[in-house]
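Minimal example, chain plus zinc ion.
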Amino acid sequence: MPVTFPENPPTPKQFWCELAWVGGEIKTKVLIEVAAGRISSVTCGVKPRPQDAEKLTGLTIPGLANVHSHAFHRALRGRTQVESGTFWTWRERMYAAAAHLDPDSYRELATAVFAEMALAGVTAVGEFHYLHHSPKGGLYQDPNAMGHALTQAAQAAGIRITLLDTCYLAGGFDTELNDVQRRFSDGDAARWADRVEALRKAYAGSDMVRVGAAVHSVRAVPVDQLPPVVAFAAENEMPLHVHLSEQRAENDACLARHHKTPTELLHAVGALGPRTTAVHATHLSQMDIDLLGTSATAVCMCPTTERDLADGIGPAHAAHLAGSPVNLGSDSHAMIDLFEEARAVELDERLRTERRGHWLASELLQAATESGHASLGWPAAGRLEAGALADFTTIALDTVRLAGVQPAHAAESVIFAATAADVRHVVVAGRFTVRDHQHALVSDVPGRLAASIGAIFK
Ligand SMILES: [Zn+2]
């Protein structure tokens, strides 16, 4: 599967940033030189602007990593807000949308969704992918047709993707798959690994695509099937992601079945560690937090989804203090705005504790950039420094929301007041994916979203 970056307007070799977030500090007049998709040098205080350097007006930060995405959930936006209900009634709506997707329609929808992400400053997405097979559960001619549709979509939208191919085998503890879930399953972990091995080979050496592993949840993968998934991820040094304790009902069912919390169960099968990311981690015991922290397992918070689904507030700060790197995802895409995800981590904590100032703006920026990329298997991204991937995002500071920002407080202003609409430029591998608020590769992103979502519900 050849994956190359689509051709684009001529690539500048130098970018001159009015302000940039370098090494955790705001610097002025920063010259970023790029060669072969990587940053070759970063020099602060360069004036005047070199004649050939592209001027980036605003605050330039490393590209944002959206660590947890289910692209097709974007089709549900608004449609699930018309009635009360629970996570479980929302899931019925989500399954109804899933039943309509095939490789062509999913490629169309995901291209538009990833383009929306790019417009919001995202340069890498972690796509937690379990919509593997045909609606009745049969294999497509290429059993990875749906996965390839997602990588092609990211390529068309000009962002990097880590395809987190998800093992999903059961409808719950000792529960068969239902009719919709059948297409998620490979039957057992060995067949899941065979299919993912073909994907891994297809993208070996790709500059734009990583293949990672995922366990949907301890509900959806029986305990005897967890070790083969963990071993496959370890052998191939892949990221391993897992939904963890999003719902109290999952904890209760896991304790009843295994006399362990989901975190304790994952620990028992060797699934925790620095390549692993626990997504949500909402309802944790102190023992769970300690197990995640001491193993350096990352925690992905998705606060706009967690509040939309009335999941609860996860102990992000306690996890951070215990040793877990924290990162961010827009998950169900109730909205796609990583600034909103970042500030919600702090603001939710304020509501819970009635105290301010748990997280520094610089720590939240790091969660949205460097920590997120590390979780997705892109350790060379997420920093503005020589040798890093040339992925960066410029936030306009002259919009109605941010006008009047003092350079010294630019990081705090962006984290606590910027929106996705303030993203002016996005550069991936040294090329513009978004320029002056316009997507450089996908014209009419709203039109593409409307058409592809309309096709699902027609
Ligand atoms: Zn999820």
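Residues 68, 70, 128, 243, 279, 331 surround zinc ion (CB under 6 Å). The two ends are 32 Å apart (CA to CA).
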